[in-house]
Every structure is written in C-alpha cells, then in structure tokens.
Amino acid sequence: MKLGIASDHRGYKLKQELLKELSKKYEIIDYGCSNTESVDYPDYAFKLGNAVASKEIDFGIAICGSGIGISIACNKVKGVRASRVLTLEDVIETRDDNDANIICLNENMSLSESYNLIINFITTPFSNEERHLRRLNKIKQYEETHEC
Fold first, then answer.
1. Which stretches of 1-146 are assigned E, i.e. beta strand?
2. If phi over 0 gives left and psi between -120 and 50 gives alpha, with beta otherwise, what is residue 115?
3. DSSP for 74-106?
C-alpha cells in the first residue's frame, strides 16, 4: 500500500513524526511542506489530492492547524473524498459510508492518536452498500458535469 502525506507549517511536526512511524510499514510519499515557515495549505492539499485522484497513491493523509482548511482544499480536487476526523467513530463512518480517500487531521493530535486513526482509516473497507454507492455516484456525476 502506498500512502501520501501533506501538511502546512502548523502540521509539519506531526507530519514528520508520522512519516517516521508509517514508513516502517508502508511506502509513503511526502508532498510537503518542508519546514515550519508559514505556507498556504491549499498548495499541498492540491498536490496530495491530485496524487490520490490519479491513483499514484492509495490513500492520503493531510494535516493543518484544525484539519478543516486542508480538508476543504483537498475536496476541491475531482475524485477526492477528504474527511476531517477526530474520533475512531468518524474514521469508521467516513470509510464505511463515504469511501473517503484522504484523512485530515489537526496539529494537536498526539502521534499515537493520529497513528491509530490512520491505521483504522486505511484498513476499514468501504461497505459497498447500494445506498452508499448511489450517493457516491451522484457526487461523481456532479463532478463530471460541473467545474469547481
């Protein structure tokens, strides 16, 4: 499994910790940023989102101060379903119901908490239930006929 990770300057520290841990088990690509100097999270969200949409990677991990801004930016990329999560329940629902492909975290999570959420995110399968497929197909149809 190939994972991608991106952050802004506020998420940089957690990103570096996660890179060290996740690279023990997974192939992981770092899409930036490269230090704690102020940057704009959309620049890195779009890189990560495009990698997910093009299937260069299987899943993405995005981190910013709150996890919200970077999730909004990731979701502007056609084919991305990014979800900001705070709990294990959030992770299970977003994978089971929405087939999310990018997990978005905030900078204040501990390494163990964020690692646990990520592992559960990438190992929780999509349910493939008809109602969820129908809803995802509506999103895909909208993306095909509308520009962001």
1. 2-7, 27-30, 59-64, 82-84, 102-106
2. alpha
3. HTTSTT--EEE--SHHHHHHHHHHH---EEEEE
Domain boundaries of the chain, sorted by first residue: 2-145
Binned at pLDDT 50, 70 and 90, residue 147 comes out as confident
Find the helix or strand (DSSP H, E) in which 53 lies: helix 41-53
Spatial separation of the C-alpha atoms in residues 124 and 34, rounded to whole Å: 30
Condensed to tens digits (0 to 9), the pLDDT of residues 17-65 reads: 999 999 999 999 999 999 999 999 999 999 999 999 999 999 999 999 9
Q: Is 39 helix (H, G, I), strand (E, B) or coil?
A: coil
Q: Which two tokens stand for residue 111?
A: 């390494």
The whole-model pTM stands at 0.96
45 close to 31: Cβ distance less than 8 angstroms = no
The fold of 2-145 is: Ribose 5-phosphate Isomerase B; Chain: A, (3.40.1400)
